[in-house]
Amino acid sequence: MNYIGSKYRLADFIDQSIRKVVGNDLSNFVFCDLFAGTGAVGRSFKTMVHQVISNDLEYYSYVLLQNYIGNHTRIECKELFDDLNNLAPIQGFIFNQYSENGSENRCYFSESNGKKIDAIRQKIEVWNEEKKIDTTVYFHLLASLVESADKVANTASVYGAYLKKIKSTARKEFVLKPAEFENTGSSHLVYNENANLLIEKIKGDILYLDPPYNAREYGANYHLLNTIARYDEFLPKGKTGLREYGKSNYCKKNLVSNSFEDLISKANFKYIFLSYNNEGLMSPETIKNIMSKYGSYRIFTQKYARFKADKSTNRTFATNETIEYLHVIQKNDIH
After folding, report:
1. pTM (two decimals)
2. Is residue 194 over pLDDT 80?
């Protein structure tokens, strides 16, 4: 997915930095990705560690994480994908509220794709209610739907607004494709909770933190993915059809430092790694001062090209460089 703040392109930098601190053998480690987003970092460590704990407050992220992290044994359901892809389109909530020629004419999707998303989402829920599928298959299908829908969305990478005309990629026929996950011998844990509350209930070896850096709220930028994932009844608001969403202290300049220190102080993990760039609400000095209170501190840096949406061409392109910081402590007191 084209996701704000994704660490996909920084995966090697994160992996190498973590190994410099904790060593190369991670097979007995419990690794926690507390602000997991699409799960890119947790997925990269899933086959290397004993267990991954993955969490995100956004429900669409939880769906993706249940599939990519929570699911760990092979699922055979090709016939279900065939059935879903062959469903007749219907005029449901996504078509009416978020599609071309729907009752609200919000052009997040073409008419045909909006109707197809409705048909598939409703059928998945029917199968779940009728116990035709178990939880692992349910989240596998839902994650596949969220990702496949995102590929044909008529946006410039986020859902804060839709494009006035349906772009060429959004005209492509919707096809539900499996969101393939890695199989592992051990199981993993997935949560959909406030990070500062969850941290009091979990423990492990490596805590990886990738909180929001700035005032952009993920609940607003990806509201439509939450709506597809939940498929609940509500009255969309405004031109963009927003739903109610939770706001993060990590997106508020006057609250972020206190929330971050609260999290670090409660963390029951030997090693803590924080990804944060040079444009974040907290300065590198603030982060160093907070983290140094609780353990021996060091920092790794990596320059990379910032990517920005170009609304005129509906593409992303590299602009100037930004710096990714990976702040690290080995914590003094863990229980």
Report:
1. 0.94
2. yes
Q: Would you kindly state where each structural domain of the chain is located, as residue ranges?
A: 1-72+181-212+248-335, 77-180+220-246
Residues 6+ away with beta carbon under 8 Å from 15: 44, 45
Coil, strand or helix at 328: strand
Angstrom distance (rounded) from CA 153 to CA 224? 10
Name the pLDDT band for 260 (thresholds 50, 70, 90).
very high
Contact 69, 54 (CB under 8 A): yes
Q: What angle do CA 74, 75, 79 make, to 5 degrees?
A: 145
For residue 217, the SS3 value is coil
Tokens matching residue 100 = 């071309």
H or E element at residue 44: helix 40-45
The total of other beta-carbon atoms located within 10 Å of residue 237's CB is 11
CATH superfamily name and code, 1-72+181-212+248-335? Vaccinia Virus protein VP39 (3.40.50.150)
